[in-house]
Every structure is written in structure tokens, then in C-alpha cells.
Design goal:
4 domains, 536 residues, alpha/beta, 6-stranded mixed sheet, disordered C terminus, Rossmann fold, 17 helices
């Protein structure tokens, strides 16, 4: 189903932005004087730090928001989209980072939703829907089972379903926002192969991503944004990772080299045994979890999101009580006794959801950086806060962690997502914890700031703390960890040496295609078998 609007110039660029600006009602300038050209039949990457204006560009192209100034041309025709339906009619489709599917519906039902083939009585003709999706999937080389329920299939297949939704509606220009955010390496490879097949069939693809290795792997050309403005264009083959990163942040970046630690001859500082957790709905989220973390060691937890990582972080931080097993720090049990006991034991936490569990958005930076320590003698006396001491402490942390703010009195809710995360990291690390549980510590943080936060984690390790790194970013896990445990369906399925780990091998464990027998990540446990030996 191709759209060829009347008057369309098939020799013109697929998309052209001319001097586009977007200013919101509160005065925030998201984009200024952005001009870029997306050629027909190319894969074009739009790169930039968190808050650089990438998603705003996508939303304007798709009609979710309208530019304050400038012109958008599609197939050489000037367009003024006020609703996504108009963009869809012009042949534009969008796959958002957070997939928009109905879990209880089949893949076919999701694809045709809103444009269903009708049967008797105007009801959905399911056979026709399945046949249409099968034919569409076959023609574009997208492997799906049209009869499977979306809630029962992998994230990769869910994403292919979203792509099919756009193609079913005739998309010839496909916008993809952080498409590999929750994919395994194998699923990423499959997605890239599918994108190349789409382009070979005439589809133009625009990808937003912060993963520079993926920019190089998939795109033909790229545009870099910084602070809402274009800072450069390039043919991807002619530019390296470091140059792209420096265009994004506007300054030279030092290479990050982390020295590995082999702590297997040490005593565990953190000892977790037979840990189990059942959520409020009665679902088993963790089962028989066993691992150690030595002082001066980073243990990474890898896995596709939703396989128990968040439950593990909540149990270790004291937010949830385990249904079985224990966690000990320096020989003292800290699990199942609440947050205050865990913190007094020396546990600190960078939570996955900073907005609900990491910061109080209506309070200023000063109050947030002492939210876990305000009752201590350093910050209070005779029931009153030492505001002067707290203010100086906050200013010191703002400087150390490079938090972009006008003052320590700024409400945290007024900060960007990346700077909110810096506030959380500053509070948790500055307390010199014995054990830090860091869940998605650099999510939503720009390239330069992510590097400095990772440096802080390594420095904390080198001062003798035990660090548990839980991250959906496999590259981050591989670059920072000394040992790696892989979680699948709430169980540890592999214990891997970080210095010799293979990304694709870990991907097999993450998807359940491989499993190490009797896997545990204790200091005396065996590492996973030879990468070539697959164990069902």
C-alpha cells in the first residue's frame, strides 16, 4: 500500500526540514533553526544528547506537535500536519520507544486495529486479517506469528508488529525512536536486517538513537543535534564514534578505560542466598538467587527488562521483603527489614524509576541530597536542620557531579531527566555506602555525563565498596563489570567472566536459549561454559 499524494515529486527528498523552530508555551526552546534533508531510500540517524531536541523533531514530522516556525516538506510538498492521521495519510509511520500494542490481542488484531477487514455483520474477519498480515510480513521479511497473542511473544516480535502496523497503513517513511532500547544483541541484529530489507523495498527510515555503535552499524547518513540546534551532518562511513560523540557534547571526550578486578580470592562483602520474591499479584519474580559481591568489585546484572531486575533492586534496597532467602552485608542481614535498616547497614540505592522513588520533584536540590541523611548529626541538631551546612553540601555536590542548575534552591522537578539522575547519584554515592545497588544509573543521561557517572561508580568500587550494577545497556554492563550474572525469568542462568565475555553469548542466555547448569554468581562458583557449547 503506497501513498503517492497528488503533486508529489518522486525525485524530491523524502523529508525536508527548512529552518524549523519549536518554542513551547512556557518559553522552552526545544529546536531552533533546524534544517535537514532525508533522502529517499536511506537510513538516516538523528543523534544527540538527552534533551537535544531529537524527539521533538520526530513529533513534528509525525504531526503530534506543530513547529513554531519553518517548513516541513514531504515528497517535495509543503505540509502542515495538525494530527498524526494526516502524517499517516502522507505515508509516514512511527514506531515509538514505548510500544503501543494491546497485549491481549493477537499480532494480526493489533496490526489491523482501526482498519479491520470486515466480515459478516461488519465484524472483524479474522482469517482475512491473518492472511493480510502473513502476506505483508512475508513481502518485507518480518518474521511474526499473526495468531500469537502480543503479551506472549518476545520484545523483538512486538517491535516487528509495530513496524507491520505502519506498513499496513502504507508507510513509505518510517520514524523509529530508540528502536533497540530493550532488545538483546540477537534481536538488534534481526531488527537491523529487517530495516535493510525495508530500505531495499523502497522505504525511507529515520532512526533516533544515542548508541553510537548502532549509528555506525545501521545508518547511511547522520545529523547531530545539540541544545536544539544542528551541529553537523555526515556520511556515516566517513566519521568515527569519537567525532560523533564530541559533536554531540561540544567538547573533547577522554577515552574511558576501566581496569578489571579479580576478587575471587576475597571474602564476600555482600552475600545473597536462595533469595525469592513473589509480587502482590502472586507472580514469582525471583527464584533461588545466589550471588556474592566482594568489597572493591562491580557485579553486573544483565537481562532483558522485565526478568526480575526491578524486583531484585527493590528487595535489596528494603522496599520489598523477600519471600525466601536472605541478603547479608558484612555478616549482618539487611533484607526484609525495611529501607531505614538497609540504609543504616550501609546500603545505598539508585532506583530504576527516579521520578517515583529517586527524587521529591517539588523539593529543591538541597532537600533532595539530604533526603536519606537529614536526621544525622551532620545535618541536624535538636530537631532542626542545619540549613547552612546543607546548602554548602549541596553546592559541593552540584560542582562535583556537574549538575546543570541555576542554584541549589532549584526544585528538582525543573531539572532535565539527566540532571535529576545526577542528583540521585550524588546523594547515594556521597554517603560512601558499603554496598551500592545501581539500577539503570545512566538511563536518560547524555554521553558526557554518563561517562562521568560511570567514573564515579568505578571510583566508589576502588574505595572498597561492593557495587551491584543493574542495567539494560549491555555495553555498559560489559565495560564496567568485573563479573556478570544473567537473569532470565527471575533466575540466574549464567555467571560470566566480564573480561572475556561475548556480547552475543550473553544475548543467548538473556533470551533463554542457553543456560548454565546450577548457575550462581558466588565468588567460588564456576563461570559459564565455552561459548560454543549451547545448553538447552
Amino acid at each position: 500500500m503506497e501513498h503517492h499524494p497528488s503533486g508529489a515529486d518522486r525525485t524530491a527528498p523524502a523529508i525536508e526540514l527548512r529552518n524549523i523552530s519549536k518554542r513551547y508555551g512556557n518559553g522552552t526552546l526545544a529546536n531552533e533553526d533546524v534544517s535537514l534533508t532525508i533522502e529517499r531510500g536511506e537510513i538516516h540517524a538523528i543523534c544527540g544528547e538527552n534533551g537535544a531536541g531529537k524527539s521533538t523533531i520526530m513529533k513534528m514530522i509525525y504531526g503530534l506537535i506543530q513547529p513554531s516556525a519553518g517548513t516541513i516538506l514531504v515528497d517535495g510538498i509543503e505540509r502542515h500536519f495538525t494530527h498524526p492521521s494526516q502524517a499517516i495519510a502522507a505515508g509516514i509511520g512511527m514506531v515509538a520507544q514505548h510500544l503501543n500494542l494491546v497485549p491481549s490481542f493477537t499480532i494480526a488484531e493489533n496490526v489491523v486495529l482501526g482498519q479491520e477487514p470486515a466480515g459478516r455483520g461488519g465484524l472483524l474477519n479474522r482469517d482475512a486479517a491473518v492472511a493480510a498480515v502473513q502476506q505483508l510480513a512475508k513481502s518485507f521479511g518480518l518474521d511474526v506469528d499473526p495468531t500469537a497473542r502480543v503479551g506472549d511473544v518476545s520484545i523483538g516480535m512486538q517491535q516487528r508488529t509495530e513496524i507491520l502496523k505502519t506498513l499496513y497503513r502504507g508507510a513509505q517513511i518510517l520514524l523509529m525512536d530508540e528502536p533497540t532500547a530493550v532488545l538483546t544483541p540477537q534481536e538488534t541484529d534481526e531488527l537491523f536486517a529487517a530495516i535493510r530489507r525495508l530500505v531495499a523495498s523502497g522505504v525511507t527510515v529515520i532512526v533516533i538513537t544515542h548508541k553510537l555503535s548502532e549509528v555506525k552499524a545501521i545508518s547511511d547518513r547522520l545529523t547531530v543535534l545539540r541544545d536544539g540546534r544542528v551541529t553537523g551532518y555526515a556520511d556515516t562511513a566517513d566519521i568515527d564514534h569519537r567525532t560523533i560523540a564530541e559533536m554531540m557534547v561540544g567538547r573533547p571526550l577522554a577515552p574511558q578505560v576501566v581496569k578489571r578486578v579479580d576478587a575471587r580470592d576475597r571474602q564476600p562483602r555482600v552475600r545473597v542466598r536462595q533469595l525469592g520474591y513473589v509480587n502482590a499479584q502472586g507472580s514469582v519474580r525471583l527464584s533461588d538467587i545466589n550471588f556474592d559481591v566482594a568489597g572493591g568489585e562491580i557485579v553486573g546484572i544483565a537481562g532483558v527488562e522485565g526478568n526480575g531486575q526491578n524486583s531484585l533492586a527493590r528487595v535489596l534496597s528494603g522496599l520489598a521483603a523477600p519471600h525466601a532467602g536472605t541478603g547479608d552485608l558484612d555478616g549482618v542481614t539487611f533484607t526484609g527489614r525495611g529501607v531505614r535498616v538497609a540504609r543504616k547497614s550501609g546500603v545505598a540505592t539508585v532506583p530504576e524509576d527516579r521520578l517515583t522513588e529517586g527524587v521529591a520533584v517539588n523539593l529543591d536540590i538541597e532537600n533532595n541530597v539530604v533526603a536519606t541523611t537529614y536526621y544525622q548529626p551532620s545535618f541536624s541538631a535538636f530537631g532542626c536542620l542545619k540549613t547552612g551546612t546543607i546548602g554548602k553540601w549541596a553546592k559541593d555536590l552540584i560542582k562535583q557531579f556537574e549538575i546543570k542548575t541555576a542554584s541549589a534552591k532549584t526544585p528538582v522537578g525543573a531539572l532535565s531527566g539527566g540532571n535529576m539522575q545526577k542528583v540521585v547519584m550524588a546523594r547515594e554515592i556521597s554517603g560512601e555506602p558499603k554496598f551500592l545497588v545501581a539500577a539503570q544509573p545512566t538511563r536518560g543521561v547524555d554521553v558526557g555525563a554518563a561517562g562521568s557517572l560511570r567514573d564515579e561508580l568505578v571510583a566508589l568500587r576502588d574505595r572498597g565498596a561492593a557495587v551491584l550494577l543493574i542495567s539494560a545497556d549491555l555495553e555498559e554492563i560489559l565495560s564496567l563489570s568485573d563479573r556478570i550474572a544473567v537473569l532470565f525469568k527471575g533466575e540466574i542462568v549464567a555467571h560470566v567472566r566480564a573480561d572475556t565475555a561475548d556480547q552475543r553469548e550473553i544475548g543467548l542466555y538473556m533470551t533463554g536459549l542457553k543456560r548454565q547448569p546450577h548457575a550462581a554468581a558466588t565468588l567460588d562458583a564456576a563461570f559459564a561454559s565455552d561459548p560454543l557449547e549451547a545448553i538447552a
